[in-house]
Write a structure and sequence with these properties.
By secondary structure, the chain is an alpha/beta fold. It has twelve helices and nine strands. Strand 8, helix 9 and strand 9 form a beta-alpha-beta unit. The protein is globular and about 60 Å long.
Amino acid sequence: RDNAYSYLLLKDIFPQNAVDMKMLKVKGILHRMFVKKEQKLYAISDTIGCMSEANKKFVLKHNPFINSNKVEVNPNTIEPSDFNQSLDQKIAIKLKYKLPINKKIFVYGGNLGKPQGIDFLLETIAATKNKDVFFLIVGSGTEYNRVEKWFVNNKPENAILLAGLQKQDYDLLLHACDVGLIFLHKDFTIPNFPSRLLSYLEMKMPIIAATDASTDIGTIIEENNCGYKVISGDTKNMQLAIDKIIADEENYKRMKESAWNLLQMEYKVERSYKLIKDKINV
């Protein structure tokens, strides 16, 4: 209407994500309506910023009417803080939340919903026999009650569940942990790119990403020596990744530094700002 410049930061590829989760029927009335809205949104956008290269390829492949010149990678970005926490402070936080002092804390933080493939997270906890590993799940969402019920019924000795915390408390707790976990449902055909990656990188944490085969988040993690990728549901390789990430302390330290370096190179807010500013100033 006003001839304004429209830069779309595409965070969710909808309605296909709902189709993948069997929440919408392909070519049903709702699906057709949302596809029409999706295509209109792409058409009126002067530039479309996708979260990763795989996202960009997916959008162009499934929407051939889009001019490829107006699609670029503009990922989730943050203004990182360099947290400095002493060993005594970390111990105090672990004691506060009843976490073991002498074990590696593998943390899953964030939304607990169907897209996260929570079943494999719970399967991973049950299958892990390594005595040096302890799991922390902290978050909220539609699957929280089911996870809580699983904890009540199974009483795992190697894991604890916490409800969502205020950001300041969550950041302090996250910094006291050792390895970040990312889970995505195995049925996704769209390349999701969870924002919790940035929280883990900010805390200089190595990461294990258990995802579908469509996303490139695990590939990015491995290529930058920040951790390992696993296909969701692959219990054998998940256990290998868990053991491998804590077996070599020197490599673990290198992964911590690599995580911070990746954040600095790719996911600082200045990158998003410059991409948008350059388009507007053309």
